[in-house]
User: Which sequence fits this backbone?
């Protein structure tokens, strides 16, 4: 009996899960046994026997009182209240209650004399809980930081919409979600709530988040219907986790994912309204947290455990409808639920309509919904939805038209923005002249504005969130409309209204354009504007300002590294604008230029070339074209040809563009001309003219240093290119010194994960490798490759460039099998992307031949070397350093199969070419002469062999030092080799 008296049973409604667990923990920490019972009055008959069963648990019974009673219909609540009055006298000495609601309690609950817990400090709340449970206060202090967090204390990181106080039912679904996450244990889990629109997936997720908030330290809600919005909101989590925005959105997202992957803090990420999972998978961390997705796409089943969300059960529908309006009896609520097929969205809207139209007979309204036709109410049946749904929406719209004209006019404007997050703040700050005259005064007056929005919310079930306004008032901050209702209203707008309100929406968006997409301070604004471009018809507009907004948004996507979204948006802009304005219109040309740029960034070089050549041809045929448009077209096409390995053609276009820019823009030192000249310097380097390229890069660096300062990103890029050329010229230590400083400043200015920073670290690793610091080079290059794989994927051109170099570094470290696999995979991917004849595909395959020799596959290596040497000669010419390098490896392959005479003949001819192209002191020339010395020694020509050997040792000692691995290898008479390094475009 003593054990029973010491036991405490905690009874709670499901929505109070966090409080119940906290109370349970405090009682157990005080040494008492407990039982937790979740109580659902919707699933039990409201009888005294049901209460008796509930209260028959041993020991004391502690009831957790919240506002669940408000979710019951009047009839059901009165029945439960009467049942409680019947049983209370018999159990009052064993019962106690605590209140966790700030709302007034009904008389039947007040009789329990519940003790208030909300608004207290945790230690005071704990004392009250123990007193109610009949437990004496402990003599020692308890660390309340252990165990569940005090429910009144929010999670450390919290961004979630407010709770829906009208939420009813769904207990089994909530338990399924909680069970799925709990079953995963410490491994983490993803759950997708799957169902059609209007079935209540978002509200179910929202209730789960609030109900189980106590389980998490980090809770972040992402509106995932629009990819651009989703990625920006996910990246915003970085600042809450003390992660700096790197500038490149993909890099910031990777940093946030990495933080979630490694943190020990429990976290929950919600992706609400998610579409195609392939477009959002990079927002799904792999850590030990929980991911909750709401979606109508079944493909999420491959990424998460799916839980089907059906319509309401009938008893849930009845409870919800009666809670939404007090006019309904149980029977009427059931008939209304039947008429709208228990669909939560329609049930919410129809019950709200009844609530605001108290004179309309309930039975007549239900009959209209069930049996009526949409055309009776001014709406043509679309066939997209059941007719009962369209009747309900038609009556709702008519109510707005007839009874609240301002709200109806406002709705017409709001549906010209994205349904996902209507830009309320932009409307509030819009110029009067940008708005329809009938709405300008409404929006300018806060009280009228908030009243109209609340009216819309009540009638249409829009979700609104409040925030602090002027003079400490509360104003609507965000608003979300269901996509089905948004689509319906758009479909019934008259053409004149659609044109008029869309034009107003575009004016609001144009006024909100910061007009500077290069500034990080404006990035959040552009991410917020992009989802509204299509609903406002900005992509179809002939207005110059609207088109400028679209172009600025495309440039923002380029700046943030969001190339796929930039490609989609630029393609749509080109399609719309070209049809209405012609191919040589300025906005069309800029959009086409960006389209080709995005294609190039995505590695779709042939498509980019087609676009670029078509534009340039049109410009050259057209009259009255601004010279700058031709300059831009040549510069863009030059970049594409450079990526395709057509270096002479690219150089010619860059030279023409640079000359034209200097004449048109006022000289060689202006920023736009410098950008084109920088491209020219890269093309010259790709032709193998390293000295000429270095000289031009140095001039550009000096000019940018003067114009922009040493810590500007463009100045840093020029310095990086200088160091790259110095390394290719064999001036390794000089390159290392410059690149070491350059990499440090990059990480300070652009963040460690920015694309340009990764390129700087890539070059730093290559410099370290060339001076013999292989361990540092390996650590650095491995990190760069890991970031690049995460950021761009394994097949992106930038990733392949790093993988090509990393494979040969693994060879240096004698990890030969790994090197062979990676080199072979890289060569295969290059050939698939760029074609077998591209210099990068040829050079990467030549690297494979080098590793094959290490593995003893000498004849196969020779066959491959001969083929790559021949192909490289055709691709870039006999005197290109890459051709000389491939020939050097062919010499080594000949020697490996014992054909020393052929090796010596080819080695001598290649060394002479290297002297002519690169000079006596270049590393490639020195190593060719070293190999020739070995072959001459084999052929018995000792005197010439020794002379060549002594000269090579002296030069290498001077260049690299006596302890450098290359110097030691030559002293030990090892065969030198060359490896191909792709260059950044």
Assistant:
């Amino acid at each position: 009996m003593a054990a029973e008296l010491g036991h405490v049973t905690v009874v709670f409604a499901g929505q109070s899960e966090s409080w119940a667990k906290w109370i349970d923990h405090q009682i157990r920490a005080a040494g008492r046994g407990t039982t937790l019972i979740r109580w659902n009055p919707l699933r039990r008959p409201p009888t005294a026997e049901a209460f008796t069963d509930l209260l028959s648990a041993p020991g004391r019974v502690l009831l957790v009182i919240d506002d669940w009673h408000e979710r019951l219909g009047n009839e059901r609540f009165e029945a439960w209240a009467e049942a409680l009055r019947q049983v209370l006298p018999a159990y009052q000495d064993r019962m106690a209650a605590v209140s966790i609601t700030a709302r007034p309690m009904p008389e039947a609950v007040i009789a329990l004399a519940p003790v208030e817990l909300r608004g207290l400090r945790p230690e005071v709340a704990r004392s009250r809980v123990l007193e109610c449970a009949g437990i004496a206060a402990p003599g020692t202090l308890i660390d309340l930081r252990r165990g569940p967090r005090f429910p009144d204390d929010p999670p450390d990181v919290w961004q979630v919409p407010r709770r829906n106080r009208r939420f009813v039912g769904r207990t089994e679904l909530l338990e399924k979600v909680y069970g799925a996450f709990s079953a995963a244990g410490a491994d983490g889990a993803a759950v997708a709530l799957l169902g059609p629109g209007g079935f209540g997936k978002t509200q179910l997720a929202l209730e789960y988040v609030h109900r189980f908030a106590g389980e998490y330290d980090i809770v972040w809600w992402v509106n995932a219907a629009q990819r651009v919005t989703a990625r920006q909101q996910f990246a915003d989590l970085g600042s809450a986790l003390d992660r700096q925005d790197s500038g490149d959105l993909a890099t910031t997202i990777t940093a946030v994912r990495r933080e979630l992957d490694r943190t020990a803090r429990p976290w929950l990420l919600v992706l609400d309204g998610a579409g195609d999972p392939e477009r959002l998978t990079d927002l799904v961390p792999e850590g030990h947290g929980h991911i909750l997705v709401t979606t109508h796409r079944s493909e999420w089943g491959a990424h998460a455990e799916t839980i089907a969300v059906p319509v309401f059960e009938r008893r849930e529908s009845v409870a919800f409808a009666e809670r939404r309006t007090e006019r309904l009896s149980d029977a009427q609520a059931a008939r209304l639920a039947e008429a709208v097929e228990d669909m939560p969205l329609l049930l919410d809207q129809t019950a709200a309509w009844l609530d605001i139209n108290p004179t309309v007979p309930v039975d007549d309204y239900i009959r209209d919904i069930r049996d009526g036709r949409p055309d009776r109410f001014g709406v043509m049946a679309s066939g997209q939805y059941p007719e009962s749904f369209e009747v309900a929406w038609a009556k709702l719209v008519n109510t707005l038209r007839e009874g609240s004209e301002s709200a109806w006019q406002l709705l017409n404007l709001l549906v010209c923005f994205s349904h996902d997050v209507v830009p309320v703040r932009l409307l509030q700050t819009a110029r009067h002249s940008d708005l329809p005259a009938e709405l300008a005064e409404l929006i300018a007056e806060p009280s009228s504005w908030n009243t109209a929005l609340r009216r819309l919310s009540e009638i249409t079930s829009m979700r609104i969130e409040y925030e602090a306004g002027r003079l400490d008032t509360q104003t609507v901050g965000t608003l979300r409309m269901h996509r089905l209702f948004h689509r319906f209203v758009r479909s019934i707008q008259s053409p004149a209204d659609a044109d008029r309100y869309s034009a107003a929406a575009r004016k609001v968006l144009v006024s909100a354009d910061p007009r500077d997409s290069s500034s990080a301070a404006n990035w959040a604004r552009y991410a917020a504007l992009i989802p509204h471009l299509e609903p406002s018809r900005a992509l179809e507009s002939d207005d110059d300002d609207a088109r400028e907004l679209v172009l600025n948004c495309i440039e923002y996507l380029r700046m943030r590294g969001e190339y796929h979204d930039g490609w989609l948006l630029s393609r749509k802009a080109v399609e719309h604008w070209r049809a209405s304005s012609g191919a040589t219109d300025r906005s069309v040309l800029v959009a086409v230029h960006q389209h080709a740029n995005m294609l190039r960034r995505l590695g779709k070089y042939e498509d980019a070339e087609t676009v670029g050549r078509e534009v340039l041809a049109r410009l050259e045929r057209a009259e009255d074209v601004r010279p700058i448009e031709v300059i831009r077209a040549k510069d863009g096409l030059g970049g594409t040809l450079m990526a395709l390995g057509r270096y002479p053609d690219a150089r010619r276009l860059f030279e023409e563009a640079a000359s034209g820019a200097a004449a048109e823009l006022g000289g060689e030192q202006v920023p736009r001309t410098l950008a084109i000249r920088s491209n020219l310097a890269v093309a010259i380097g790709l032709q193998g003219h390293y000295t000429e390229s270095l000289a031009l890069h140095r001039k550009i660096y000096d000019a940018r240093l003067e114009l922009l300062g040493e810590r500007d990103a463009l100045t840093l890029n020029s310095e990086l290119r200088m160091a790259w050329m110095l390394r290719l010229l064999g001036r390794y230590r000089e390159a290392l010194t410059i690149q070491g400083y350059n990499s440090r400043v990059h990480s300070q200015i652009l963040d460690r994960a920015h694309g340009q920073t990764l390129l700087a670290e890539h070059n730093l690793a290559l410099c370290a490798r060339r001076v013999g610091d292989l361990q540092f080079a390996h650590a650095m290059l491995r990190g760069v490759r890991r970031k690049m794989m995460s950021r761009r994927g394994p097949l992106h051109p930038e990733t392949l460039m790093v993988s090509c170099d990393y494979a040969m570094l693994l060879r240096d470290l004698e990890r030969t099998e790994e090197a062979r696999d990676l080199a072979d995979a890289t060569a295969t991917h290059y050939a698939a992307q760029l074609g077998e004849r591209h210099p990068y595909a040829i050079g990467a395959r030549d690297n494979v031949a080098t590793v094959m020799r290490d593995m003893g596959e000498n004849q196969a290596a020779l066959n491959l070397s001969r083929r790559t040497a021949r192909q490289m000669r055709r691709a870039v010419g006999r005197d290109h350093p890459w051709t000389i390098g491939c020939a050097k490896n062919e010499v080594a392959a000949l020697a490996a199969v014992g054909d020393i005479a052929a090796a010596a003949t080819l080695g001598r001819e290649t060394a002479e070419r290297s002297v002519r192209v690169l000079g006596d002191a270049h590393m490639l020339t020195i190593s060719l002469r070293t190999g020739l010395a070995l072959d001459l020694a084999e052929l018995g020509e000792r005197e010439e062999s020794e002379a060549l050997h002594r000269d090579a040792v002296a030069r290498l000692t001077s260049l690299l030092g006596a302890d450098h691995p290359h110097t030691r290898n030559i002293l030990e008479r090892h065969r030198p080799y060359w490896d191909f390094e792709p260059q950044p475009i």
In short: Residues 785 and 802 are 6 Å apart (CA to CA). The chain has a mean pLDDT of 84. Residues 563-581 form the longest helix (19 residues). The first strand starts at residue 8 and ends at 13.
